[in-house]
Amino acid sequence: MALLNPRALRWKIAALTAAACCAVAAVIGFLVHDATRERGLRVGHERTITRLIAAERELSRTGKAPPDVDVRTREELPDPLARDLADQPETGGGYATWYDADPPNWFWMWGAVAVGGDQFLVVRDDMSTEVRSLQLLDRSIVKSVLAALVFVVPLAALATEPINRRLRHGARTARRIADGELDARIGSTGRARDEITEMSAAVDDMATALQRKLENEQRFTADVAHELRTPLMGLVTAAGLLPETDEATGLVRDRVRALNALIEDLLEISRLDAGAERARLDAVPLGEFVADVVRRTGTGTQVAAGDADVVETDPRRVERIVVNLVTNAHRHGAGPVQVTVTGTRISVRDHGPGFPAALLEQGPQRFRTGAGERGRGHGLGLTVAQGQAGVLGARLTFANAPDGGAVATLDLAPGPSGTV
Amino acid sequence: MPEPRVPDPVSVLVVEDDDTIRRAVQLALERYGYRVDVAADGLSGLEAFRAGGYDLLILDVMLPELDGIGLCHRIREESLVPVLMMSARGDALDVVAGLEAGADDYVIKPVDTPVLVARIRALLRRATFQPSQSPPPEAPDHVLVFGDLSVDTLGMEVRLAGRPVPLTPTELRLLLEFAAAPGSVLDRRRLLREVWDYGWEGDTRVVDLCVLRLRKKIGSGRIETVRGFGYKLVRD
């Protein structure tokens, strides 16, 4: 994956290395090219002047110019050569040169010298050898740079591997912590005391601090719930002994039930948060099971279970989720509440105002019903349902139907299904 | 709603350290027609148990002097009386420890009286059920033999290599369920339904731990685990 990702750090560093290599090669190449060209020109220049001096000497000795030297008038000189000739001081011998790098006569070194009257000796020296060797030089510089890149880029990519590995390890660990594995730590990998080590240590410290905080909170919740259960048990049993005829009995029992449910939800959430829950799998015929569970809630909810599967799951947790969803639908939504089982999916739909926007965005939050004025719930039911779905490896999603009403869907993610 | 009193009251011993729970459970069960004695700690619970043949014991787990699990162990050394554990700790470890100690079932506090009574009734049904209910009485072969294990479905007696094996009523019902269909796999749900009389509301861990105890008594190789399905009795 990381190997193919063009934005991976490895390729960025490799590209950076390649760019640096190219820049250095360009500067050095330019300097070398320039120096070589200068030298070539100087050599051509000297050769031309040498030839002119020889021709001058030949002319003065024999009265005739050598065959490879022209004798021209000023009008016959090429313009740049004539200009250069005019610039020459009289004392310096008056040798003019012009390097013609333009077509059609390119790479010729022209030389001219006045020999009295309107007569000029003109030589042309072929510079193509120098030019060709310069071109060869350029080409070989480019070739060497490319050859170097072929080695340097993979080497740079490889050299980033230890860094990459440490970064990936850090990212993986952070993700594991986020997934609830609170003991996971990056640890000090390697002896390098660099920024990555520093960041790893900081992340580890953060994880430790968070873990301690979380565990304290969980222990507190669990302790509170345990300590509450004992007096609650006495209360529940004693409330059962009150005379049936008294109206106050109903009030007391109702509140005892509410208190009981609240404490059980809290205890369950603290267990779910601690990650202490494990699913106990059974082959569950989902249709009949859900129908049975919904019937036992005594809420008059319609159940449609046409083509339900037999699912390998933990029936007690599924029951918990379904009961909470149905109860929530009746408490915060409006009837009719419909439960539909299709395949491995259970959806609970009501015809009330739908889920509040905050719940759709962030999922269920404890004690945040977003509808305090309507309901009497404490916002734990959906949190419990979500947590239990997590234990089952199922997906619980909340949505609003286009024509109004809340829809909660539990997908038990098709596992190996069997028969009972 | 309290039921009409039974002519011959079933006697129950409740061992519980919390005063309110002890008294309230006693009163509640008495309304359902049980004769209820109470003890406030493990040792006096053990004394009370030794003093008077109870039909059923309800033990709290966290008790002073001798905790419920230790008490259950001690009781199991002497008797096969049905034991119901009652705990404020519902974590897996506590439940498993209680069941391993030989309890037949457990409830987590707080428990509504009707639920408690339903559990008690299911336990007593197992303890007192008529042999004629399960295998056909006219079957000439009422002694089923699996190697050196013999199960007398009329005399309700189990012998291993000729020697009688003491089984609690729950363990006996479980073994009879297996013996009725030797070699076929019985899933936990079905066992929970047939032996414990529970529907989906039951916890299949009680099945696993009862099988564990049964294996200790009749030999570990006799009941095989079929992973993902349940258990079966080896036909031999």
Automatic annotation (TrEMBL), chain A:
Renumbered residue ranges of the record's region Disordered: 60-89
Reactions catalysed, as given in the entry: ATP + protein L-histidine = ADP + protein N-phospho-L-histidine
Histidine kinase domain segment(s): 223-416
Source lineage: Bacteria, Bacillati, Actinomycetota, Actinomycetes, Kitasatosporales
CDD domains: HAMP, HisKA
Cellular compartments annotated: Cell membrane
GO molecular function: phosphorelay sensor kinase activity
Keyword terms of this UniProt record: Kinase, Membrane, Phosphoprotein, Transferase, Transmembrane, Transmembrane helix, Two-component regulatory system
EC id: 2.7.13.3
Biased composition (Basic and acidic residues): 60-86
Matches recorded under InterPro entries: HAMP_dom (IPR003660), HATPase_C_sf (IPR036890), HATPase_dom (IPR003594), His_kinase_dom (IPR005467), HisK_dim/P_dom (IPR003661), HisK_dim/P_sf (IPR036097), TCS_sensor_his_kinase (IPR050428)
GO cellular component, one term: plasma membrane
Protein source organism: Streptomyces microflavus (Streptomyces lipmanii)
Main location: membrane
Name assigned to this protein: histidine kinase
Superkingdom as given in the UniProt entry: Bacteria
TM spans (from-to): 13-32
UniProtKB/TrEMBL annotation, chain B:
Boundaries of every Response regulatory domain copy: 11-124
GO biological process: regulation of DNA-templated transcription
Highest taxon of source: Bacteria
UniProt keyword Phosphoprotein present: yes
InterPro entries associated with the record: CheY-like_superfamily, CseB, OmpR/PhoB-type_DNA-bd, Sig_transdc_resp-reg_C-effctor, Sig_transdc_resp-reg_receiver, WalR-like, WH-like_DNA-bd_sf
Domain OmpR/PhoB-type: 141-235
Pfam families linked to this entry: Response_reg, Trans_reg_C
An annotated Gene Ontology molecular function: transcription cis-regulatory region binding
Ranges annotated as DNA-binding: 141-235
Classification via PROSITE patterns: OMPR_PHOB (PS51755), RESPONSE_REGULATORY (PS50110)
Keywords assigned by UniProt, alphabetized: DNA-binding, Phosphoprotein, Transcription, Transcription regulation, Two-component regulatory system
Keyword Cell inner membrane appears in the UniProt entry: no
Residue positions, PTM 4-aspartylphosphate: 60
NCBIfam families: resp_reg_CseB
The protein's name: Response regulator transcription factor
Source taxonomy: Bacteria, Bacillati, Actinomycetota, Actinomycetes, Kitasatosporales
